[in-house]
Design goal:
The structure is a single chain. The chain has 218 residues and is α/β, with parallel strands linked by helices. The protein has a single domain, classed as 3-Layer(aba) Sandwich (Rossmann fold), CATH 3.40.50. It is built from 6 helices and 7 strands; from the N terminus they run H-H-E-E-H-E-E-H-E-H-H-E-E. It has helices at residues 13-26, 28-42, 79-88, 125-135, 155-170, 180-185; strands spanning 48-52, 68-72, 93-96, 110-116, 136-147, 191-198, 210-217. It has a 7-stranded mixed β-sheet with strand order 3-2-1-4-5-7-6. Strand 2 (68-72), helix 3 and strand 3 (93-96) form a beta-alpha-beta unit. The radius of gyration is 16 Å and the shape is globular.
Length: 218
């Protein structure tokens, strides 16, 4: 199927504003379910934390108060919600509006990099993973939870490919049939650990149930 481009997304600030406005409500049940996965994955975070596509700031509750937190969020309408959650978490946010595929952060600054439900929507996942490796300190950790493509040849993979154009437009560029796990394995990290799991259908649409959780070491 032909790959859609970012230029195919709805134009103008209204779409981005509405996406930010309704994101938390739409994702409420998912975040309640995924909390245990995030708590386990983010345990022991410290130092400088760089988050790719933090959205409305749903992960700030897991970040220690004494951390330096840097967020790369290209949708400026998310920033109001991000700052509100940062105040609640007693964190001083450093926000960048540049896209995840070319963010303006110095080399080797981060002890930890985070992405949750982000790598599906970036135009060039390999470039983003390269940027993550660039900003991590040697030995730094990349922590991720992402929904991914179903097994090749499965009925669910067929559904994902069939729904791809609609979901891409509805989900702000989300590519539901992207094999993100394989991209992370091939990104040049020193080591990668990935666990596969499924989110219950009552929490998310069936075509985004396949997930991965894991970490990669720079």
């Amino acid at each position: 199927m032909t790959e859609l481009q970012q230029s195919d997304l709805p134009k103008g600030g209204l779409y981005k504003r509405l996406f930010a406005r309704f994101y938390d409500g739409f994702m409420k049940e998912y975040e309640e379910y995924i909390a245990c996965h995030k708590q386990g994955l983010f345990e022991g975070i410290s130092g400088t934390v760089l988050e790719i596509g933090p959205g409305t700031g749903v992960n700030l509750r897991y970040i220690p108060k004494d951390s330096r937190w840097i967020g790369v969020e290209p949708n400026p309408h998310m920033h109001e919600y991000l700052r509100r959650k940062a105040r609640e978490a007693e964190i001083e946010p450093e926000l960048h509006v540049t896209g995840a595929d070319g963010f303006e952060v110095e080399d080797g600054v981060a002890d930890v990099a985070i992405s949750t439900l982000v790598l599906c929507s970036v135009p060039d996942v390999d470039q983003v993973l390269g940027e993550i490796r660039r900003v991590l300190k040697p030995g730094g950790r990349f922590l991720f939870i992402e929904h991914v493509a179903a097994r090749q040849g499965s009925g669910l993979r067929f559904v994902q490919s069939s729904l791809f154009p609609f979901w891409y437009l509805f989900g702000d560029g989300c590519r539901i049939n992207r094999d993100t796990g394989q991209s992370i394995r091939e990104a040049g990290f020193d080591s990668v650990e990935i666990d596969e799991f499924r989110v219950p259908k009552r929490k998310v649409p069936a075509w985004v149930t396949p997930h991965i959780r894991g970490f990669a070491i720079r």
